[in-house]
Description:
- This protein is mainly α and about 55 residues long.
- It has one domain.
- The protein is about 85% helix and about 0% strand.
Amino acid sequence: xxxxxxxxxxxxxxxxxxxxxxxxxxxxxxxxxxxxxxxxxxxxxxxxxxxxxxx
Length: 55
């Protein structure tokens, strides 16, 4: 697996986690608070992967 493939795998994992996190947040009593706390780390990981040259 080359560098770009590895980054693509990481991005797919991040997007999948974001989708799972959103599903969980929709079931939470306080959507806004949960959204910020849950998505911030995952979005940061995706941004770092993009900066690394995936796209």
